[in-house]
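Name: Glycerate kinase
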Amino acid sequence: MKIVICPDSFKDALPAEAAAHAMACGIRRIAADIETVECPLADGGEGSLDALLAATGAERCSTRVHDALGRPTTAAWGWHAASRTAYVELAEASGLQQLTPNERTALHSTTLGVGELILAALDAGATKLLLMLGGSATNDGGAGMLSALGARLLDASGQPLAPGGAALAELGELDISGLDPRLTTLAVETAVDVDNPLLGERGATAVFGPQKGASSEDVQRLDTALARFADCAAEALGEDHRDLPGAGAAGGMGFAARAFLGARLRPGIELIMAQAGFEALLEGADLVITGEGQLDGQSLAGKTPVGVSRTASAKGIPVIVLAGRLAPGWQAAFDEGVTAAFALADGPMALEEALERCAELLADRAESLVRLLVKTRP
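Structure predicted for Glycerate kinase:
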């Protein structure tokens, strides 16, 4: 029997690689003869870089950059020398989790550090870039990234704009003539886990701005500023991408990636499964076990368990989801190929205890599942 183990991370508890290892350990307790294949995955959000490094054997690199508030920091990125592919996770440089709740400011946070990571990748000789956009603290439409890459964003007096999305309301000229020429030969794919446009009620600011510190007044101010940015971008490029599904990802970074880097926007789980060679790993598999912190109705928008189940079920392979919590709407996953889903808790417990015991609980649930299989198989 062959079981493919491919979870996402369990937020605040375990990275995907550790979660996969815990499941495999549980299986081996009672069935050492079962072949287990560990393939940690992610959907483009936090932890995607770690999942890619584990799945591809790429080298972990680090570069001094600026964080979302413009402070010096060190950010990791991945380098796959054989394919000259760089893996850049936005959250490493401009992530929300790097800021305390009191530091979160959608008005002034910047993607400058993401552009600095891309420059490091270009300096290494990258010809391909996989850009992962989840977990951002920013709402600047990618303006900071463009500044790092050589663009000039000027006000009506010809002075450089201050960092952050709010300053875009004063944008008078978007000069992209100085963009790094190496970008023209860089093939960019962008992992997104949302399909929101840049502006409006479903846009980057209205939907995601409040979690980044934006008040209701800030939301209107930022949406107006991003509209000004989109107008200037359309004038500079001769095409308008504000309504593109995924343009609103990461505070408008989806928009900038498509408009200025020529990126192809794809669901993050699809991109990461492709990089990990996931379909090849499924050959001869009898079961797939996946999971993440929470399975709910929103998981259908592109979260790891549903992406995995769609792929595996198309090959006739059953899929089990182990989740920290089964939240409202989780049953919809059955229509996407999930065979069964189980919550981890073995009794009433506080969140802190569940997080602390996550590896133990994963191993126990995986063991129970395989005990059932071993008892019922011919």
